[in-house]
Amino acid sequence: MQLAVNIVVLSAIYALIACGYVLIYRVSRVLNLAHGELMMLGAYLLLATAASFAGNPVAAIAAAVVLSLAVGILVYVFLMRKMTGEMVLAAVLTTVALGTLLRGLMVLIWSAQQQYPGQALGFDNPAIALPGGGRISTFAAILVVTTALVYTGLFVFLRFGRWGVRMRAAGQNPLLAAQRGINLHAVYALAWGLSTLTGSMAGMLIALDSGLTSSMTVIGLKAFPAALVGGLDSLVGALVGALIIGAAEVLSIQYVDPLLSDVVPFLVLIAMLIVRPWGLFGTREELDRV
Amino acid sequence: MSRGTPRASGYFRTDYAQDLALTQTRLERASLLAFAVILAAFPFLATAFYLDLACQVFLAAIGALSLMLLTGYAGQISLGHAGLLAAGAFTAGILFREFNAPFWVTLPAAAAVGALLGIVFGLPSLRLRGLYLAVSTLALHFVVVYLGGEYESKRGYSTGIMIDAPTIGGYAITNGRVWYFVLLVAAVATLLICINLLRSRTGRAWRAIRAHETVAEALGINIAAYKLLAFVISSAMAAVAGALFAYYRHFVSVEAFSLFLSIQYVAMIIVGGMGSLLGALLGAVFVTLFPYLIEAALQQLPNAQSYAGVLFAVNYAAFGAVMILFLLFEPLGLVGIWHRVQHYFLLWPFKHRPVAGAGK
Amino acid sequence: MSEPALLTVEKLEVVYHRTITAVQGISLSVRKGQIVAILGTNGAGKSTTLRAISGFLGIDDARVTDGSVTFNGRRIENRQPNEITRFGIALVPERDKVFPNLTVIENLTAPFAPSHYNRRDSEDLAYQFFPRLAELRSRTAGLLSGGERQMLALASALVCRPELLLVDELSLGLAPVIVQDLMARLVQIRHELGTTIVIVEQSAAAALSVADYGYVLENGRVVLDGEGARLRAHGDIQEFYLGQTSGSDRRSYRSVKQYRRSRRWYG
Predict the structure, then answer these.
(1) Quick check: A263 contacting B, CB < 8 Å?
(2) CATH number at residue A74
(3) CB contact under 8 A, B130 and A289
(4) What CATH number did the domain enclosing C18 receive?
(5) Is beta strand C7-16 parallel, antiparallel or unpaired with respect to C20-30?
(6) Residues of chain A contacting B316 with CB distance shorter than 8 Å
(7) Which of A35, A261, B266, C56 has the smallest CB count inside 10 Å?
(8) What are phi and psi of C214, to 5 degrees?
């Protein structure tokens, strides 16, 4: 039972992070390899707001959430916008460089020490006993619920929201979208904002659950195979992919070798690239786009 | 398209020997000679610190040249170059530790392992392109590094594998100057191999594949074979560079082969300028010297000591920033800048070359 | 001729990749409420002209190097496509003319209509001219037939309430019956909405059946222009574009002279 709980929690983590990759890729065909660092930035923002709003955890969280949305939009407006229209690979390398820059800046501003935003906000993290014998920490449970809510929200927005439809349109045919009056820069900025928002939420919840360490960027990078296995432009795929990767990782730690945990997602990734590069739910034509 | 150095006025090559020669004009020959003299005299004029810097540059140059062949010429993106360096280093380390193998066994073995891994890294390129290919190389990098880590922990070398200096006929290469020349020769040899490869049918096939794969295939070029060849050659070179690196440092450990190292090599070919061997060299110099420049710059600041502990963070931040600047404003890299400077002087007082088809 | 033209193209020159001059000095003018046809074979520069007007040259590394495009008194050459859309020009491109994974309704509501129109208005407008689309509301656009897709493309352009509608190769890949039907809708659109329409066509018969005015392009130049009726009756047009040979099968000297005279087009 505990195994199942672990799988669900890890999958929820990966899913919440993976939807960020999917959002940006689906809309602008850019792979945001700085997502892990942006995730961590979100957690640090929570730390910062916890200090500013001492004694008012709700305000701190709200402020951190709003800030991370702003960060995403600003990253697009001031950096990625200039790479729109260039080769996708150049844009991806720009995100890699951004990630490196952020990593350095975060250590410089906040030091490389492990931090505990949960303590700063005055939160406890008691374990909840589940029927069947498993245990789950409070924040892990909150994370699972958050992932479910986020995905539901995104599904509804993309399917029925006016701007959601525009985002999907821009992803399919940017030229036509521009010609029909859709402001591509606005759509891309929105995608970056939402992506950073969901990533930051993941970062904050992970930090509240088990602390803020530099390993968070590794988690961010491990969630990328989840996005790709499901199909880089499919939200449903990200969910399914996260489940697969989460299960693979937990099971291999349990039954094979604990050291495998960091490499299993990539093994699954390689297997998927060999068998079905566009992922389980991705659109096939994505393959030839460079 | 005019390649490489623009020349002020027409000059003609009248026989094949002239065409094949490395240098074309007297000026080029003279500057090459002067450069060779400087390179030869350097170790006798420099301190140990600068000697070490130069050796690092040579090692980086071999790695950068191999990546330039793969990405800049054959057009196959690879984000996993550090994995190949690691493979070479670990081959040397493992063979030394387990079998006490001498360097003239480990180096070829490293090349062989690199070539084999090159096939593995290269297989995805037969089905994937661009982003997906880059991602597959990234994944393979993690796998290789993981295997290295597994070996370390299973054999108890948690801090890394120590390697003795290579010996030739009883003489151990430990002297900085001797290393300098050894690595210089290795780098020059790699450069010559690259130049020759690029002039051959293989090089032309690679350029064709990079320019337009479908057309290349339609022209009868066996794309799969040449792509794999690019990966194999590039990986073998990188593995040898990794092995040399292991010998130079007397030490092999997984920590040295992080994702950041892969990014550094990609930065080398971007900052240097894609599609040019000179770019690989310039990029290698730039990226290798960069952390030292940052450190020197930090020393100038009033609060120098406080930054000592976070030097690596400053490095990361500065590196990311510089890479962004190059990607945004100078996508053609240092070579692009160099060409612009050349053009300026060659075309002065005119500003632009005449446009093809100008005038009606 | 007292009112100024809605769209004027003057001595337009478009260069691809800084080396190939695809359009060499084209001048045309479109008055409000006209249907103007631009005819020519492949490579004549028709689509390039349309792209120059709608701002899509940058995609193919092409630039307007000389001449001007003026719309409603405003110079629009080398401007961004979304700016040009806001000025009131909508383009129905040759390829990729719909959003394939969106439904028909979503295709109609994604574009930006002027603010005082809502979703319902856009749908009604589309169904007014293309009632077939009402039956296909929930169908995914990629699964539509060629003719239905073209209808959807036209409808989604109309939703933007453009003053000027540009249609690139309407008839490509469609059965003549459907082409005829679509051309009739264009006339209906012009009649009911007052939209000015410019169509670029390889199928001269279809285009000339509805056009008020036409321009014939060859190798990037205008070689003939005139009222629709005059063009339909023109011997050269009939021979080269409408496939009607004049006279008997046996070539007489006079016919050969006709060819020779036509050589001037390629000069």
Answers:
(1) yes
(2) 1.10.3470
(3) yes
(4) 3.40.50.300
(5) antiparallel
(6) 100-101, 103-104, 107
(7) A261
(8) -145, 150
pLDDT value at residue C267: 43
The per-residue DSSP string of B52-118 comes to HHHHHHHHHHHHHHHHIIIIIIS----S-HHHHHHHHHHHHHHHHHHH---HHHHHHHHHHHHHHHH
Total domains present in chain A:
1
Taking all residues of chain A, what is their mean pLDDT, rounded to a whole number? 89
Cβ-based neighbours of B292, under 8 Å, separated by 6 or more = B53
> Encoding tokens for residue B152?
């370390």
How many of the other CB atoms lie within 10 Å of CB of B297? 11
Residue of B239, B252, B208 whose CA lies nearest to B67: B239
Rounded mean pLDDT of C214-237?
A: 85
Q: Residue C23: its chain B contacts at CB < 8 A? A: none
CB B272 within 8 A of CB B118: no
Output the CA torsion B141→B142→B147→B150 (10° steps).
Answer: 150
pLDDT, residue A230, reads 92
At a CB cut-off of 8 Å and minimum separation 6, what does A198 contact? A16, A17, A19, A20, A23, A150, A154
Q: C221 lies in which domain range? A: 7-88+162-266
Q: How confident is the model at residue C252 (pLDDT cuts 50, 70, 90)?
A: low
Residue carrying the six token digits 């960091």 = A262
In the DSSP assignment, the letter for residue B240 is H
Q: Give pTM, 2 decimals.
A: 0.88
CA distance between the termini of chain C: 32
Cα dihedral: A57, A59, A61, A63 (round 10): -150
Chain A CB contacts of C85 under 8 Å are 178-181
pLDDT top residue among C220 and B307: C220
Nearest CB neighbour to A259, from listed B131, B150, B267: B150
The rounded average pLDDT for each run of 10 residues, N- to C-terminus, in chain B (360 residues) is 54 76 80 90 87 93 95 87 93 87 88 93 84 89 90 80 74 81 93 92 91 88 92 95 91 88 93 90 95 87 73 90 92 87 81 56
- Asked whether residue C54 is domain-assigned, the answer is yes
b (16+ CB within 10 A) / e for C203-240: bbbbbbbbbbbbbbbbbbbbbbbeebeebbebebbbbb
- Residue matched to tokens 């063979």: B95
Run of H or E residues at B27: helix B26-45
The helix/strand/coil state of C89 is strand
Q: In degrees rounded to 5, what are phi and psi of residue B285?
A: -60, -50
Instruction: Answer whether C21 sits within 8 Å of B356, measured CB to CB.
Output: no
CB < 8 Å to A79, chain B: 324, 328
Closest CA to B228 of B127, B103, B80, B142: B127
Residue C84's CB: how many other CB atoms inside 10 A?
A: 24
- Identify the bridge partners of residue C20 per DSSP, sorted by sequence position: C16
